[in-house]
Amino acid sequence: MFRKWYDFLASLNLGFWLMGGVMLFMAIGSFLTGEASGINDIALLSWLMAVPVAISWWLWVAIALLALLVINTILCSIDALRLRFGRTKLLHLLAPQIMHLGFLLVVFAHLLSAQGGAKQAGQALEGSIIPLPDGSTLQVDTITGQTGPYGMATDYQATLTHLSPAGPRKVVISPNHPFFHQGTGVYLKHAEFQPSPIGVIELHREPGAAAAGAGVLLFTVGNLALLFLRRGNPT
Hints:
Elements: H1 2-9, H2 12-32, H3 44-50, H4 53-84, H5 90-116, E1 118-125, E2 129-131, E3 137-147, E4 153-163, E5 169-173, E6 179-181, E7 184-192, E8 198-205, H6 209-229
C-alpha cells in the first residue's frame, strides 16, 4: 500500500495534473477576486484568515494542490537521484534537480512573504512624516517633477530625510528608484503639483524576495543546462 502511494505521489503525470490544477484555480481566482477584496493590501495568510471561505475557497484549493506539487517534486528528485546516480553523467542528473530546487525556493519565498509581507500606501504632502516598522521615520522634504501637455506628471521625484538614531540621511526616490531600509521598500507611485505638491508613497515589505530571486536564478540555470544537454538529442 505504501509503495502504491509513493509511486502515485512521485509520478510525473501527477505533477503535470497538479500544475494544471494550480493554474486553473489561480485563473478562477483572478476573475472572482477584485481590488475590493483587499488581497493585495495585506499579507496573504492574514487575508486568508480574515475573509470567509466562500470568498477564498479557490485559493485554499490552489494551496492544497501546490503542497502536493511540492511533495511530488521532492519525491521525483529523490527517485531520480536514487535510480540514476552513477548510471548517467553528473550534469545530466543534476540539471533537472537544479530546476526542482529553484521551484522549491520560489514556493518557500512566497510562503515567507505570505506570512510576513506588508504593503501600506497613502498620500503625503511636503513636510509629512512617515513612520517605518523599525521606529525610524521619513520626512518628506520636497516633491518635484514635470507636467506633460495633458496635465499629468511625467517625471517626478521626492526628496526624503531618513531620521534614525544613526542621524539624518537624505534620500531621493522616484518611480523606478525606491529606498530600502531593513527589508522595507519605500516607493513613489504618483505625484501631482496642483494646487500643491502631493505624492502617493507606498511601503512594501517582501521578506521572500531574496529567496525568490535565488530560486528563479537556479530554475533558469537548470532549464538552460537541460536544453543544452538535450540539443540534438531529444531522448
